Amino acid sequence: MEPAPQVLIQCVTHNHVAFLPHFFSSLDAQTSRAFQVTMVDTASQDGSLAWLAEHRPEAVTLRNARAFGWSRGQNQGLAFNLARWPESEWSSHFLVFMAPNAVLAPTALAQIVEAFERDSALMFAVPRTLHAAIHVAEDEAVSLDRTPRIEEGEMRLTRSRRVMFPEAGGINTEESLEPREVFAASGACVAVRASVWQALGKEERSLFFDQDLSPFQAVLDVMWRARWAGLKIALLPAVQVWRVASNELQVQGWRRWRAWYSAAAREQRADQVYIGRVRLKEDSPLLRLRHAPWIVWGCVRRYGLLLVDPLMWPKLDISVSAWVRLFNHRVSRQTFSRISTKDMAVWFR
Questions:
Q1: Dihedral, CA of residue 308, residue 311, residue 13 and residue 21, to nearest 10
Q2: Run of H or E residues at 292
Q3: d(C-alpha 125, C-alpha 298), whole Å
Q4: pTM of the predicted model as reported, rounded to 2 decimal places
Q5: In Å, what is the CA distance from 227 to each residue of 98, 216, 218, 247, 309?
Q6: How far is CA 110 from CA 85, 117, 122, 290, in A?
Q7: How far is C-alpha 125 from the geometric centre of its chain's CA atoms?
Q8: pLDDT tens digits, one per residue of 30-52
Q9: What backbone torsions phi and psi does residue 162 show, to the nearest 5 degrees?
Q10: N or C: which end of the chain has fewer CB within 10 A?
Q11: Which residue numbers in the chain have pLDDT < 50?
Q12: Domain boundaries, the chain
C-alpha cells in the first residue's frame, strides 16, 4: 500500500448506499487533495460494497461479515489507519471520522488542517453540523438542499448531567463563526490529531469508542475522557458540514405529541436516560458530590420520562456484564487523569 497522506478519512457504513454518491461528490470537490478514504462496511445488504467497488475502487474498504455495531467498526478502522503512519509523525497527521450521510463544503478539509496547524495544542476539531435534505424532481433529478439550520455542534453537560445542544435549531450566521474551546462537541464530522492516542495511552487505540455505548454516548465518552487528560477540544463553526436527511424532530402543535412517540425521539430520550453508563466511566465521586442536588433531580426527571412511556420499558438497562466492563474501563481512565475536579467542574453549567 502506498504511503498514507496527511489526512485519513474514516467512515463506518451499514446499508447507506443511497448516501454514498453525495458523500464522495463532496470529497471530490475538496480544495485540499492530501487525504484518503477508509470505508468500514459492517455487512451491508443494500449493494454498498458493489457500489464502492464500481465507483470508488481507490477507497480502502474493510469488509466485515457481521454487523457488529458503530463503535467496533470505528475501532477497527482506527487500528488500521494508525498503523499506516510512523508514530513519530502522529502530531502532524489527522484522522477525520465522518458519517456516511455527511457532505463537506469544498474548503472543509483545508480549514480543519489549518486549525490544527495554527494551534499545536488542539487535539479535537469539530465543525458544526447543518441540515440538508434530498429533493427528487418530477424528472427524477436529485438535488441537495443545504440549509444554514444547525443540527449539532457544542455539547454541554448540566450539573444534573443532562446533555444539552444549545445551538441546535439555530442559524449558522457570520456573527457566530469564531472558533472556540468547548467541553465536548458532536456531529457528522469529528477530526482528531493522531497524537491524541499517545496522550491517552496505548490501550485506548483498540477501545477508543466504547462498544457498550451508543454512537452518541461513545462520542461524549471520548470527549469527557480527553478533558480529564487535559486535552483541547474546539468547535469550528466556519467549517461547513451538512448531514443529509436527518430526522425532523422540531415540530409544532399537536404533531409534537406524535413526534414525542416517534422511534427517533425515543432513541434521544433513551440516550439521556442511559447517560448513566458514561457517568459511571467518566464522572468522579468528588464531582458528583459537588453537584449532588442537581444530579438527584436529574435522575428523577429522566426516569420519570421512562415510566410514562411504556414503549421505552424494553430499553431498561439491565446488562450487568456491560456495567462491569464500564467500571473496569473507569479504573483504567483514572490512571491518566491530569486535571483536578475543580478544573473539570467549570464545564458543568
A1: -90
A2: helix 292-307
A3: 30
A4: 0.85
A5: 22, 17, 14, 30, 34
A6: 20, 11, 16, 42
A7: 11
A8: 999 999 999 999 989 989 999 99
A9: -90, 135
A10: N
A11: 246-263, 266
A12: 7-244, 255-345
User: What's the Rg (C-alpha) of the chain?
Assistant: 20
Supply 204's cell numbers.
485506548
Phi, psi of 78 (to 5 degrees): -65, -45
H or E stretch at 289: helix 285-290
- Residue 63 has φ and ψ, to the nearest 5°, of -100, 140
**DSSP label at 165?**
-
Chain CA centroid to CA 10, Å: 12
Cell numbers given for 109: 478539509
Superfamily of domain 7-244: Spore Coat Polysaccharide Biosynthesis Protein SpsA; Chain A (3.90.550.10)
The DSSP annotation for 43-93 comes to S--SSHHHHHHHH-TTSEEEEESS---HHHHHHHHHHHHHTTS-GGGGGG-
Cell output for 48: 454498498
